[in-house]
Amino acid sequence: MTESWMLNPSKSPESFMTDNPYRRAEFHLSAHTLSQCPPDAGREVAFVGRSNVGKSSVINMVTGRKALARISKTPGRTQQINYFLVGENTRLVDLPGYGFARVSRSLQAHWVKTVNDYLQRRESLCGLVLILDIRREARDEDLQILDWCAAVNLPVHILLNKADKMSFGAAAKKLRDLKSGLGDGVDAQLFSALKGTGADELRRVLDGWLYDRDSRLGIRE
Ligand code: GDP
Q1: Count of alpha carbons within 13 Å of 7, Cβ hemisphere only?
Q2: Whether residue 53 has its Cβ less than 6 Å from ligand 1
Q3: Is the shortest distance between the CB of 18 and ligand 1 below 6 Å?
Q4: What value, to the nearest 5°, has the Cα angle with vertex 207 and ends 159 and 46?
Q5: What is the pLDDT of residues 21-32, one digit of tens each?
Q6: Of 18, 21, 35, 81, which residue has the fewest beta carbons closer than 10 angstroms?
């Protein structure tokens, strides 16, 4: 069997294992409020999206860790801010989902307060990945999140997930149409958590935010 690292003699198998720093991600803690989050130092990137949009699948794909985000789905953690440590000072954050059927008013209010507080006040947050289902229109909460981020100049990267559900031409048109309406500091790409399409592009965006590498968007001042 030809190992892929053999095609590039400068790379050892070990370097292939460590090339994806997100593979090191480990569950750290769940926070109900901002004050329960880890100390606000270093850098973190958060993932957010409607329930069932594929947020857990995206986190698993980008880290290459199949079961990682299942942790965020365990009862009691779905409405929490779930932290994954990538390095000592580098974190991926799974924000509570929204758009669940039959959600009580108090739970809805809790979501607004938690996510709004987090986006407005978390200094170490350097970018947000907003996940949309390519087949559906953006809904109120999605637009609300974009407004909150614009208000604090937080860069947003939108994933049009489940792109495998469409022909490439139709998906590319969706992306073009979306991009034509985006404001400053917001970018978008096609993604398929099922097939892995777009994972490298997303990792480059995360690298830019977390490690200042190949960044197309600036770090929040
Ligand atoms: P979450 O509720 O946002 O965390 O969503 P999940 O990651 O649990 O995914 C919800 C459903 O969508 C599951 O059945 C996934 O297998 C499916 N799914 C997630 N991403 C994709 C994708 O890119 N393509 C397809 N076809 N299905 C996906």
Answers
A1: 5
A2: yes
A3: no
A4: 50
A5: 999 999 999 999
A6: 35
